[in-house]
Amino acid sequence: MDFELNEDQRMIKEATRDFAQEKLAPLAQEFDEKEKIPKEIYKELADLGYMGMLLPEKYGGSNLDFISYILAMEEFAKACAALEISISVHNSLVCDAIFHFATEKQKEKYLPRLAKGEWIGAYSLTEPSAGTDAGSLKTTAILKGDHFLVNGTKSFVSNGEIADVFIIFVLTNPEAKSKGISCLIVEKGTEGFSVGAREKKMGLRGSDTTELSFEDCKIPRENLLSEENKGFKLALTLLDPSRIAVGAQSIGIAQAAFDEALEYSKQRVQFGQAICNFQAIQFKLADMATQIEAARLLVYRAAYLKTKNQRCSIEAAMAKVFASEVANMVVNEAVQIHGGYGYMKEYAVERYFRDARVTEIYEGTSEAQRIVISRGLLR
Ligand SMILES: Cc1cc2nc3c(=O)[nH]c(=O)nc-3n(C[C@H](O)[C@H](O)[C@H](O)COP(=O)(O)OP(=O)(O)OC[C@H]3O[C@@H](n4cnc5c(N)ncnc54)[C@H](O)[C@@H]3O)c2cc1C
């Protein structure tokens, strides 16, 4: 057993921490208030290799192993969770999907531009009536000669507003239900395809979340990703890495909230002494730190299995559900340690509290993770 990161992994963690703390953390509050992340940031991230982290150099990627990717995601989330989710969707749901399932022609067309940050990616599985039950989606894509005719609405699409390339899941064989789902690559500006208004969210407000509408939209047949009617399997394959990434996001937010709470407890004086001298506060800090460390170990272990190309659906679900619930416990306690000030927007814990909530919901709710884990145990 080896708990040490290798030299490359340590370098990625440190370099990302330095960049994220210096450049992004000071802007996170502004992104939240303005509900916008300036697009130029993605170019800067691309120049540093963060827009094609898992891609081989051949496509302009950084060729990182999955553990390094997870370490970087944790550091980004610690600085700005809204930006982290945006680049995580781009890297692990879009670039990775194209890398693993596209034809060489599709890879050459999309991957270098995605890695250079010229194009941003979005991933769209959810629909208004298909959330946890993702296999029940209703958007149809009927093959008509050299194109699919797409009709329907997709919901809650991260990066919807800023993306140039969309990975969408559609029904190509409606009778076959989840076995009739295919995956298409859609480009911004395609006739019949429109992006709805930004959702007004509780947290991760810098990251945009939109609806997508398709009205008699013609998508060329050559934009099919993988095989027809194999889309649901593709979606499930992508879930493990993206759940581990939400685990990393959760520990990043939790660590940021813990650090603020620890510092505040040393500064805040009540009854003539710093509140960190009270055992009630010390025990909160002890529990928060212990839970974060446990969550981190689960996330890193799942990332390790993924790096080794081993099956990790149960471990990814355990890491996600545990880390997201720890994050919500920690941000809650961080607000408590700040007292009334924790409820005010001038303190970052207020934002962490809002940002953490969604980690128990997206990429499969906590209930969905427990279904995956228990099914695995009972199999
Ligand atoms: C900020 C944000 C960003 C998102 N980004 C994306 C994105 O980029 N792409 C994308 O495709 N999707 C995205 N989503 C969608 C997200 O993945 C879904 O919201 C999530 O899967 C839950 O689906 P739902 O909201 O329809 O809830 P529902 O499925 O309606 O669930 C409602 C409740 O019922 C419970 N429930 C449902 N089924 C069961 C069951 N069988 N057993 C027990 N309990 C059950 C759930 O756990 C939950 O508590 C995003 C969501 C948010 C909030």
Give your account of this protein's structure:
The protein is α+β, with helices and mostly antiparallel strands and 379 residues long. It has 3 domains: 7-119, Orthogonal Bundle (Butyryl-Coa Dehydrogenase, subunit A, domain 1); 122-228, Butyryl-CoA Dehydrogenase, subunit A, domain 2 (Beta Barrel), CATH 2.40.110.10; 232-378, Butyryl-CoA Dehydrogenase, subunit A, domain 3 (Up-down Bundle), CATH 1.20.140. Helix content is 52%, strand content 16%. It has 10 helices and 10 strands. It has helices at residues 7-34, 40-47, 66-79, 81-101, 104-115, 231-267, 279-307, 313-338, 348-357, 366-378, and strands at residues 121-124, 140-144, 147-158, 165-171, 181-187, 193-198, 209-220, 224-225, 269-270, 273-274. Strands 1-4-5-8 form a 4-stranded mixed beta sheet. It has a 4-stranded antiparallel beta sheet with strand order 2-3-7-6, with helices on one face. The protein has a two-stranded antiparallel sheet with strand order 9-10. The chain is globular, with a radius of gyration of 21 Å. The two termini are 28 Å apart. The model has no long low-confidence stretch (mean pLDDT 97). The structure holds flavin-adenine dinucleotide (FAD). Flavin-adenine dinucleotide binds next to strand 1, strand 3 and helix 10.
